[in-house]
Amino acid sequence: MTIDLKKLFASDNEIDTATYNALLKAIKEKHQDGFDYLRFKQSVKSMQNMDMDEDTSFKSAFVTASTVGLTKKKLLSSTKFYMNILNKERESFAEAMRNQLTSKVEAKKVEAEKLAAKIEDYKKKISKMQEEMELYQNKIDSVDGEMESARKKIEATRDKFETTYHSIKEIMENDATKIEGIL
User: How confident is the model over 130-140, as pLDDT tens digits?
Assistant: First the structure.
């Protein structure tokens, strides 16, 4: 007898199809042999499909199953077995979620922290460069002042030279004129 787990565990709730299929697959892969909870549930569903109420369906399915050795204790044990499968899947899912959280969220947090540290480093470098630029600008301004001062000194020296030159030259020219005229 083939068991259609989707019919057995059809839900009116809005469920995630991928999760639903994964859980049913886990149940199918680990199903028990013999008349277990799944076969009991299938019998109950079959009886309900014949318009039998739920209580009567459970009782009729149990009476039929008891003829092949199913007891209430075995049925509850089988039910717990399948619930344990679900619990193990939930634990695996929780572990996968933790791993995803670590890789996708925590890793991004670490990346953001590294980028923030780089930004701080760049801010410090920019600040240092601005200080150096200000220092260089002050030197340029100082050099401009020194150049102007040196230019004025050079011009003053030139003016003094020219004045002295012209003075001596004038004396020599006057003497030359006198030598020409007197001698």
Answer: 999 999 999 98
- C-alpha 177/C-alpha 179 separation (Å) is 5
Residue 181 lies inside a defined structural domain of this protein: no
Half-sphere exposure (CA, 13 Å, Cβ side) for 21?
3
Q: Which domain holds residue 15?
A: 5-70
Distance CA 137, CA 151 (A): 21
Q: Is residue 29 part of a domain?
A: yes
Residue 143 in domain:
no
Flag whether pLDDT at 171 surpasses 90: yes
* CA 159 to chain CA centroid, nearest Å: 74
Looking at the 3D structure of the chain, how many domains does it have? Answer: 1
Reported as a single tens digit per residue, the pLDDT across 51-93 is 999 999 999 999 999 999 999 999 999 999 999 999 999 999 9
The answer to whether 14 touches 55, Cβ cutoff 8 Å, is no
Angle value at C-alpha 15, between 9 and 21, nearest 5 degrees? 60
CA angle 85, 87, 93 (to 5 degrees): 105
Backbone angles phi, psi at 161, to 5 degrees: -60, -50
pLDDT band at 106 (very low <50, low <70, confident <90, very high): confident
Q: Yes or no: say if 65 and 43 are a contact pair by the CB < 8 Å rule.
A: yes
